Amino acid sequence: MEIPRNVREIIETLNTNGYEAYAVGGCVRDTLIGRRPEDWDITTSARPETVKALFHRTIDTGIRHGTVTVMLGKKGYEVTTYRVDGDYHDGRHPDSVTFTPDLREDLKRRDFTINAMAYNEEKGIVDLFRGQEDLEKGIIRCVGNPLHRFREDALRMMRAVRFSAQLGFSIESETFDAIRRLAPSIQKISAERIQMELVKILVSPHPDHLRLLYEAGLTAYILPEFDRMMETPQNTPYHCYTVGEHTLAVLTHVPAQPVLRLAALLHDVGKPQCRTTDSSGQDHFYGHAGKGAEMACQILKRLKLDNDTIRRTEQLIFHHSDSIDLNERSVRRALNHVGEELFPSLLLLMEGDNMGKTPDGTNQRLDYLRQIREIYQEILFRRDCISLKTLALTGDDLLKAGIPKGKKIGEILHYCLEQVLDDPDKNCHDLLLQMALDYFAE
């Protein structure tokens, strides 16, 4: 394994002073499978106060649990003393931590075998729990007893699914059975931590592994709306899946952007509540986009997403089933309603939505979206006005023309914008001003 110069320097400094030190955890796993690690963590037999004494610049990031961040240049590296964790009564933090000189004791407290390997250039890879074998087989397996590992930190159940989604691995049967058994304990975990793991699953190469959260019973506690989606059929000519299975298919057909994947996850969340069945047995979901946008807002607030993410996701869901005519006027109005920033994402969501429907008619539906995209590109190329910020008339212009300050100003500007959306050639200051004065005089 090749490790960065700074990591090697930290390990060598500790070794030179008589202490063991290894790169450990995810950085070893990622290097073995050919991925570039984002962070390099180091584990050592040296106690925290010794680490602080050996390096010029350190930060006490988790000193109670043995972690010191060593700063080399502008980059920090977490160095943690070998430790044995006490009981976890809160399902998240150990009640106590005992430092140990034994690397094995430190490795066996870790969550999964693929994350319990250590490496330095002198000893090579230290793999006491068959982590390399599980990497080769594509398996997520707990270190030791999975019930113990998940009782220590219930979030590890979601982490198992997250690693499965990121790596395309399966979850070993005993590990998965333990998740099923302990699923209710996920309620001990904060919404912020759950949200972080959920988003990581969604933006992974295999977002459809979200199904594992459902099969393990975790969504019943963190996203019960998804359970209802999985259980809601769609007896229509356009669908061959339940709402939930359709959603999983859509997730795999949109780019791995957080807002776009969140919108894909929740775009049909309103369908179970809006479902009606006519006399012929065909289902209808009238108003599901509006209801879904409303529900998505509540769900994302519950999961502690930021306001901007909520706003953009809600907007995409509200418009995902809009019908846009194949002409410039209709596309300009869609751009105005959705927003210039979000319109490309809306097209991607619509495309993914179509890919999750019955194969019959897929090519026709995708051709329709291709034509919409071509019209959109032409509008961009011409720089047509599609919002008040590029309208050739401002509120100040109206005030100078003698129109009194107040709500009427906004009403007149929106009237002028409507005319320009119909005909962009009307985006001319003098023409718009005369139109505004005529409208005011009526």
Q: Which short descriptors sum up this protein?
A:
alpha+beta; 442 residues
Plain-language structure description:
With 442 residues, this protein is an alpha+beta fold. The protein contains 23 helices and 13 strands. The protein has helices at 5-16, 26-32, 48-54, 103-107, 131-137, 146-152, 156-167, 173-182, 191-202, 210-215, 219-222, 224-230, 243-251, 258-266, 271-274, 288-302, 307-319, 328-338, 343-355, 362-382, 395-400, 407-422, 429-441, and strands spanning 21-24, 41-44, 58-62, 67-72, 75-81, 83-85, 97-99, 117-120, 124-127, 139-140, 170-171, 276-277, 283-284. Strands 3-4-5-2-1-8-9 form a 7-stranded mixed beta sheet. It has a two-stranded antiparallel sheet with strand order 6-7. A two-stranded parallel ribbon has the order 10-11. Strand 12 (276-277) and strand 13 form a beta hairpin. Helix 14 crosses helix 17 and helix 22 packs across helix 23 (429-441). The radius of gyration is 28 Å and the shape is globular. It starts with a helix and ends with a helix. The model has no long low-confidence stretch (mean pLDDT 94).
